[in-house]
């Protein structure tokens, strides 16, 4: 079955001059040297770097192989997300103007992505300072009292706040959620150990941890009540695991500890290459990379990709095949971007019922709202109405790209009657052109545009002017409240 979608990534011209130039300079290659290795003329390479000519797919693959990056590094996805964020930010009333146009935002990102990124960082700092200032002026919701400089400093009011969590998330996104050296190291370990199937994997990893590092595993019934799921006691060489946790979680934590020990140097190497603002971001990055290794160890790349294709990306069957959780499989599916053997490019979002995004990554053009609330039409929020059930959705975004989205709640049990279990949901999605490779397209008429739900990045950033689910106007839009008629919302937005 052949599916065509508007603006298919396979037919779009990709201008990647700035990224190509940065990579070349980072590898300390002259234009002549790189052109020679690519088998093209230096003048052609110069035109590519100046965005005079697009980077065609065959050449993109050769460049990626020579410079050691995935081919998706040169796709428009990251630039489009940054341009969307620029439009969203410039609609803030702070600027007292309408948002910049899509053409202006795209041109700004293409001309100087580093400047655009710094502008977004500055805006995030402005928002955080505004929130800190409000909290300091109204510490308990009472009357505002001015603070002295010393009081402000004592209460943590800083002129340059850090955003470690967002910073690490953006860094992982910039790598398209794929870390080649860690992934291959995990695969080599899985093959050399050797690790058995789902039935014996936990015992195999426990034995590996004991034999190679002298660390034994003890299940503790008191950890979870104190808000801890695992603890490594280095003095006694004991790994304590929360007894109430699921078998899949305990398996993952063992793999995480193995990764943090055995891949310490590689993790540090990756972190040194990044430009994090402080120790908190670096510490979070270490956790993220150890988690990445854990997923790659439990679900080795080659075997997992082969099984995913054979099972048509059926998440629940992959769970059974590898003895993992729904979330772990979804996350692994979103990392299959090895240059010579890529899987379907998925985006992934983990959110709670209040709309707080806990995790996000994307190998697609899907755009996340950085500064506004979520879209209520997205199936990830419908999943909370039917906990534990799989919700499949075809959705289209304002840029006329359609996606197949799969969502389900993945709440952790509380462990006791009086506990408050964490209730979160996962959504994983791919562009519609890849949907036929998945089991989730079964029974869907993917050629019928009417089945697609019109989702957006959140009301503050969404360009749809006729959506009856809108909660607030688009940032920077002109409003017409009128007097002769009333729509589903008490205003109309004018371009």
TrEMBL record:
<dbReference type="InterPro" id="IPR010359">
    <property type="entry name" value="IrrE_HExxH"/>
</dbReference>
<keyword id="KW-0804">Transcription</keyword>
<feature type="domain" description="HTH cro/C1-type">
    <location>
        <begin position="20"/>
        <end position="74"/>
    </location>
</feature>
<dbReference type="InterPro" id="IPR026281">
    <property type="entry name" value="HTH_RamB"/>
</dbReference>
<keyword id="KW-0238">DNA-binding</keyword>
<keyword id="KW-0805">Transcription regulation</keyword>
<dbReference type="Pfam" id="PF06114">
    <property type="entry name" value="Peptidase_M78"/>
</dbReference>
<dbReference type="InterPro" id="IPR050807">
    <property type="entry name" value="TransReg_Diox_bact_type"/>
</dbReference>
<protein>
    <submittedName>
        <fullName>Short-chain fatty acyl-CoA regulator family protein</fullName>
    </submittedName>
</protein>
<dbReference type="Pfam" id="PF09856">
    <property type="entry name" value="ScfRs"/>
</dbReference>
<comment type="similarity">
    <text>Belongs to the short-chain fatty acyl-CoA assimilation regulator (ScfR) family.</text>
</comment>
<dbReference type="Pfam" id="PF13560">
    <property type="entry name" value="HTH_31"/>
</dbReference>
<dbReference type="InterPro" id="IPR018653">
    <property type="entry name" value="ScfR_C"/>
</dbReference>
<dbReference type="InterPro" id="IPR001387">
    <property type="entry name" value="Cro/C1-type_HTH"/>
</dbReference>
<dbReference type="InterPro" id="IPR010982">
    <property type="entry name" value="Lambda_DNA-bd_dom_sf"/>
</dbReference>
């Amino acid at each position: 079955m052949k599916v065509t979608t508007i603006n298919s990534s396979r037919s779009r011209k990709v201008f990647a001059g700035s990224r190509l130039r940065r990579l070349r300079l980072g590898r300390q290659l002259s234009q002549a040297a790189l052109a020679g290795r690519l088998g093209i003329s230096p003048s052609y390479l110069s035109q590519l770097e100046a965005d005079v000519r697009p980077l065609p797919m065959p050449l993109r693959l050769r460049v990626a192989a020579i410079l050691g990056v995935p081919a998706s590094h040169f796709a428009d996805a990251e630039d489009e997300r940054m341009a969307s964020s620029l439009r969203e930010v410039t609609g803030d009333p702070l600027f007292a103007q309408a948002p910049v146009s899509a053409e202006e935002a795209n041109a700004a990102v293409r001309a100087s992505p580093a400047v655009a990124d710094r502008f977004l960082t500055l805006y995030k700092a402005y928002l955080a300072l505004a929130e800190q200032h409000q909290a300091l002026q109204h510490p308990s919701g009472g009357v505002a009292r001015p603070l002295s400089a010393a009081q402000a400093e004592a209460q943590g009011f800083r002129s340059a706040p850090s955003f470690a969590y967002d910073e690490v998330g953006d860094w992982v996104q910039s790598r398209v959620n794929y870390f080649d050296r860690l992934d291959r190291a995990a695969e080599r370990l899985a093959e050399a150990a050797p690790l058995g199937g789902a039935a014996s994997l936990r015992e195999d990893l426990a034995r590996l941890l004991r034999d190679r590092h002298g660390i034994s595993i003890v299940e503790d019934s008191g950890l979870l009540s104190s808000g801890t799921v695992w603890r490594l006691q280095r003095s006694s060489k004991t790994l304590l695991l929360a007894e109430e946790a699921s078998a899949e979680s305990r398996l993952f934590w063992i793999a995480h500890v193995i990764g943090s020990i055995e891949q310490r140097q590689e993790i540090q190497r990756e972190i040194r290459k990044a430009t994090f603002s402080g120790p908190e971001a670096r510490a979070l990055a270490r956790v993220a990379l150890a988690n990445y290794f854990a997923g790659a160890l439990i679900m080795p790349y080659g075997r997992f990709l082969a099984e995913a294709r054979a099972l048509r990306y059926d998440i629940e069957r992959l769970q059974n095949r590898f003895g993992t959780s729904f979330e772990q499989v979804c996350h692994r599916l979103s990392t299959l971007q090895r240059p010579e053997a890529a899987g379907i490019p998925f985006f992934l979002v983990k959110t709670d019922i209040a709309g707080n995004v806990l995790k996000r990554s994307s190998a697609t053009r899907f755009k996340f709202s950085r500064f506004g609330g979520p879209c209520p039409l997205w199936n990830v929020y419908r999943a909370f109405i039917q906990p534990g059930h799989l919700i499949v959705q075809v959705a289209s975004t304002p840029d006329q790209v359609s996606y197949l989205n799969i969502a389900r709640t993945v709440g952790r049990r509380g462990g006791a009657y009086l506990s408050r279990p964490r209730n979160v949901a996962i959504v994983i999605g791919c562009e519609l052109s890849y949907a036929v490779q998945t089991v989730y397209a079964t029974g869907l008429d993917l050629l019928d545009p009417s089945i697609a739900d019109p989702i957006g990045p959140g009301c503050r950033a969404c360009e749809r002017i006729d959506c009856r689910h809108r909660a607030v106007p688009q940032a920077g839009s002109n409003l017409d409240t009128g007097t002769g008629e009333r729509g589903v919302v008490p205003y109309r937005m004018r371009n």
